[in-house]
Amino acid sequence: MNVESGDLRFHIDEPDKVEVLITARSTIRISGWAVDLRTLHRPKIRIRVGKSEYAASAVPRQDVQEALAIFGAIPVDSGFASKIELPFGRSVIDVETEDAPGQWRTLRRQAILCFSIARIFSFRTRSQVSGSRGYYFHIDRPKRRRFELVENRRMLVSGWAIDTGTGKRLNVEIKIGGESYTGNPKAREDVANAFVGVCSLPLECGFELLVTLSIGIQKIELFLLTPDDERVPIFSSWLLFVPWSLSNQEDKLTYRKWKEINQKLVEQQLPELRDHITNMLYRPKFTVVIYVDNEADLKATLVSIKQQIYACSQVWICGSTSMKVERSTTDVRYASTIPWMELTGDFVIFLRSGYTLRREALYSFASFLNRDPNADLIYADEERQNGSDILSFFKPAWSPDYLESFNYIGYGACFRISLANLCSKPAGHYDFVLRFTEIARRVCHVDQVLFTCAGRESKGSEGQAGVAALESRLLRTGRKGQVTPGNQELEYFRIKVEPSEKPLVSVVIPTAGQVVQHNDQPLDLILNCVAQIRDRTSYKNIEIVVVDNDDLSHRQLATLEQAQCKRITFREPKFNVAKKLNLGASIASGDILLLLNDDIEILSTDWIERMLEHFEKPHVGVVGPKLLYRDLTTQHVGVVHNSGNPDHVRRLFPRDDAGYFFSTGGVRNFGAVTGACMMTRRSVYQEVGGYSEELAISYNDTDYCMKVQRLGLSIVYTPYAELIHFESQSRVPKLDIDEAHWYQQTWARESVSDPYYNERFLSVASPTFEVTINPRLL
Known about the structure:
Layout: E1 3-5, E2 8-14, E3 20-23, E4 27-36, E5 45-49, E6 52-55, E7 57-59, H1 62-67, E8 79-85, E9 89-100, E10 103-114, E11 122-127, E12 131-141, E13 147-150, E14 154-163, E15 168-169, E16 171-176, E17 179-182, E18 184-186, H2 189-194, E19 206-212, E20 216-225, E21 231-241, H3 255-268, H4 270-278, E22 286-291, H5 298-306, E23 314-318, E24 331-335, E25 347-352, E26 356-357, H6 361-371, E27 377-386, E28 389-393, E29 414-416, H7 417-420, H8 429-439, E30 443-454, H9 459-476, E31 480-485, E32 493-498, E33 505-510, E34 515-518, E35 521-524, H10 525-536, E36 542-548, H11 554-562, E37 566-569, H12 577-586, E38 592-596, E39 600-602, H13 607-612, E40 620-628, E41 634-636, E42 639-642, E43 645-648, E44 668-669, E45 677-681, H14 682-687, H15 700-710, E46 714-725, H16 737-746, H17 748-751
Parallel strand pairs: 3-10, 13-21, 22-23, 22-25, 23-24, 27-30, 33-36, 33-38, 36-37, 40-46
Antiparallel strand pairs: 1-2, 2-4, 4-8, 5-6, 5-9, 7-8, 9-10, 11-12, 12-14, 14-15, 14-19, 16-17, 16-20, 18-19, 20-21, 25-29, 26-30, 27-28, 27-29, 31-32, 34-35, 38-45, 39-46, 40-41, 40-45, 42-43, 44-46
Helix pairs in contact: 8-9
């Protein structure tokens, strides 16, 4: 199309006009024509790319001369062309004309993204056996600096490395301090596309690794591991890791500073808080029960009760003590054991000697009860102190399955006395909490740190009591199983349940029938997945439903038939994994659906039993397992909303990582789990309408979990079902912007604040459960 600009007529033939031009070439041709109708000459044309300038050469254009003949004698050399060098990455091309000497006007501006191998830092090495061979690489992170100051303990190292001679990915060794690691494979479609015409590369030609730094200075080195057993250095840098809490950067708000500010704020607001107490419509009466296991610590607990803004009605001091409390307006009583049937008032709070309440604790409980008088149990966040070390525990919303890992509710919570007296003399505090939550109608969480507990209790006695409490829980809830400690310190527990029934489990697998490179060998994803299920799974009441695209080979079809798989074909031209899963579920016969990617390998043979056991509990709607990368670092251990978007917690941590208060090592409730491996009841799947087909690619698994939660059902992560996930071996991960918008519009209210992850005080980029302050959310 010809363009007019005053007396100037011009057209840019090459390149085509697009918003962003993506190319794998290191050079590009710019061509077109231009005529000044006043002078009937071709104007001077230049092309600018960044700071580089290129003059355009004259090109004969008889077609232009003939088309514009009505304006006069147009010169035949009205065309222009220039070949320019492109920098690697994103740049902008300007095609300009000179209106007057030194005055240039832009005719067209074009953004361009270059992934050319000629623009990438590269080298060649010679092998006596293989002849000349080209190795190419690029280090994305860390940046190429001789020295770098680092403030985060965990640092991502990433990039790509390939052998154009064989068309394979090269392994990269990452050496930091005295330890050496191999980078994890990562899908890099951009790199594979950039080398089209040079060689055929696998999608996973990239690498990444999350490394842990030591405090102080250390050297990081990267080496290419070539097929000829060469170890070629490609990167080195010195890193100085100084945690920002130690780096004296006063402009950063630490948790300790925030706590000091908040305590001052409470002091300043005392007159308003007391006025609020006076005007409360409901004035609940609180009883505090202190179990004395160390009399020397009792005074600190009593002082914290005396300093409460909202007065306590009664205090029971239980255990052996000679300490007598001074007379006050508070009714203080003594007993050798907790006087269950003698507790008076509306709510009771249990403490141990040495545990202290924040000054505003009882006020916060009373204020909450005025907003929600039907609450039976209110628990708050806490600090755990051991000497000078303080660990903050920001708890999730009511999590019945997490409670079976350990007593996350703990002390300092507020229990309705009328229900507490029905708990028939429990064997310990954990036993009491379990019993109480079985009869409570409404359990609530206040996301404030309202008490501090000392970490000096005997783990042995507490641990054995925890095992007994959970064994009693199994009996009361009609489950048969075994309770064992989760670790040697007896800090959390594992329940292994024997399913009362063995329902048919329908494993629904959408597949593209791809064969990929794995350990330098071809791997047929769907056939490998089916073989893994048949050969490595101890649970046998299974049917396998394969959803293909009508493009499986004769060998694949024959093998699937031999493995007695059901098969259904997705025939729509546009990819939509939600529709494929719904299609597979439509022919499934089982009461339990197991949605599974085809890029999976099984580690624990009882993985189905360990997921299935949670459906012995009627409140569970979805269960997800622990998924690992091939180097056995974590890929999926739960999903939370991070600034409104779903995100995986604690990616690339060690396989045996316990997590934040056993978030990885124990069973825990989350807002969602990944659809790469997800178990759910078929009745629930049908009730919520299956996967939302508006979400063809992105967020459909999280959307399903959100719909299930609307039914009042829980989402459970279990670490005891372990699988390896080749994450998007069968499809490169992409975020569809329109689908992300649809998801956020649908779940705006629910996703703005994740009830299972405290974005104000825990890291959000990425969500690793590390305590940090996010000032924008305070």
